[in-house]
Structure to design on (469 residues):
């Protein structure tokens, strides 16, 4: 099938052609006609499936077709995204696909001054892309009116809920007219996400692109059984021996990202880190350095990496295995894009053994074991309690924290859904504020920065009780 078979108007077809796109991806082929037919949609899809265009194209088309008279100062479409990077990426898609239309969009997020965003809103925009925290700031200050929203898009709903944004989402949705069209995208369909769709969508059609069907076959996957103390040495050896030049490394904790970058730089490997404690300027600079080749390696946490769309990533390395198997597919999907091949390496400690089993069950594929000089029999043969993350200490210990996830979340900061009491505010390494917050102006909370909303304070045991974001 081609895009011109989906009843897409000519200006958008021209924009798609300019980008070199002729054939829709499965999620686009199934979703675009439904949205053009006024249906509410739940899309289950991972990164790399083309899900952004699946909602950007129909939103642009329907707004264009309904345009008459001068532009209203109130947005007619609202897109919520969990992180700044994803909000920026979505805004770029509206720019690309709407270049031949007279529609104006704006992305609002924290980490930057709110003043210019307010001034742009006052002149009027058709489409507003926002992180929940910054949008709540604007609403509380009376600087944005959502009373004319016709389209409501929630991108990465599962991640939004993991980060504790459910109350904000409900408050935002209550400010939008009940008569609107809705689209929720999510990598997984948890009970909480399902409940949310019942509140906000009307008789939605579900479009499910199963994660095990996404580009995994074109990715070479290997697992390295290893002890924690040897991980950095193995990473340096792999990058140098295989002459890698565009590598995305995923880690579980913010402090570890910085530690790895320091070690790589000492070894003569240019690297950048991106995580929630970085300011917006630092994150943008790091991304640009990685895109243009000034940095060979990008070290990122899961949430900070949301929305990163970088071409020609040759290798993805899971320095820390994710504790949710869907995140593994999400991570490795950053390589082997647009029909190209890619490589994904995973470092597996003894305490990650259960995570590895979960990943293999989800992908229905046994990951090949790699031979290397740091090979750990302890990690390879771990079973029972040895194959699980160490349990958290109680409030009487140095590694305090509450976890909802039982043993799967017992790694403390490695639990993406870890929260404090009743959705308490995030405290990263004991601090209540973060320069990487999604709320700017000196009063940002890391919960609103596209980062964890959970209560997580620094502890011992190699930092396992620190926030993973």
């Amino acid at each position: 099938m081609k895009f011109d078979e989906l009843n897409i108007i000519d200006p958008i077809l021209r924009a798609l052609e300019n980008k070199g796109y002729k054939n829709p991806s499965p999620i686009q082929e199934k979703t675009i006609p439904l949205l053009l037919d006024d249906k509410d949609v739940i899309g289950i899809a991972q990164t790399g499936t083309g899900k952004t265009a699946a909602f950007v194209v129909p939103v642009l088309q329907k707004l264009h077709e309904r345009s008459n008279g001068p532009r209203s100062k109130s947005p007619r479409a609202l897109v919520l995204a969990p992180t700044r990077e994803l909000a920026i990426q979505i805004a770029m898609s509206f720019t690309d696909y709407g270049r031949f239309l007279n529609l104006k969009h704006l992305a609002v997020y924290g980490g930057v001054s709110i003043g210019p965003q307010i001034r742009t809103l006052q002149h009027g925009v058709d489409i507003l892309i926002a992180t929940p925290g910054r949008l709540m700031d604007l609403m509380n200050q009376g600087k944005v009116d959502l009373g004319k929203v016709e389209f409501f898009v929630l991108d990465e709903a599962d991640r939004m809920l993991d980060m504790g944004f459910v109350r904000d989402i409900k408050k935002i949705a209550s400010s939008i007219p009940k008569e609107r069209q809705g689209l929720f995208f999510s990598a997984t369909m948890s009970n909480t996400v399902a409940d949310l769709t019942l509140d906000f969508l009307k008789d939605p059609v579900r479009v499910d692109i199963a994660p095990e069907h996404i580009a995994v076959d074109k990715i070479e996957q290997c697992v390295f059984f290893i002890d924690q103390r040897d991980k950095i040495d193995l990473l340096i050896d792999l990058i140098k021996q295989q002459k890698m030049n565009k590598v995305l490394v995923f880690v579980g904790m913010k402090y570890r990202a910085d530690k790895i970058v320091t070690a790589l730089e000492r070894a003569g490997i240019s690297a950048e880190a991106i995580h929630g404690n970085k300011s917006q300027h630092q994150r943008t600079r790091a991304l640009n350095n990685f895109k243009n080749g000034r940095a060979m390696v990008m070290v990122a946490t899961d949430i900070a990496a949301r929305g990163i769309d970088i071409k020609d990533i040759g290798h993805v390395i899971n320095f820390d295995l994710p504790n949710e198997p869907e995140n593994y597919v999400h991570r490795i999907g950053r390589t082997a894009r647009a029909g190209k091949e890619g490589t994904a390496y995973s470092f597996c400690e003894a305490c990650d053994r259960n995570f590895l089993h979960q990943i293999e069950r989800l992908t229905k594929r046994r990951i090949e074991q790699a031979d290397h000089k740091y090979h750990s029999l302890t990690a390879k043969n771990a079973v029972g309690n040895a194959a699980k993350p160490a349990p958290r200490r109680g409030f009487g210990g140095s590694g305090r924290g509450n976890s909802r996830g039982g043993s799967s979340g017992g790694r403390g900061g490695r639990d993406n859904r870890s929260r404090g009491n009743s959705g308490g505010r995030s405290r990263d390494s004991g601090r209540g504020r973060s320069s990487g917050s999604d709320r700017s102006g000196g009063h940002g909370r890391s919960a609103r920065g596209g980062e964890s909303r959970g209560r997580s304070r620094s502890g011992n045991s190699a930092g396992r009780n620190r926030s993973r974001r």
Remarks:
- Residues 3-209 form a domain with the Rossmann fold fold (CATH 3.40.50.300).
- The chain has a mean pLDDT of 81.
- The longest helix spans residues 51-66.
- The chain has two domains: 3-209, 213-387.
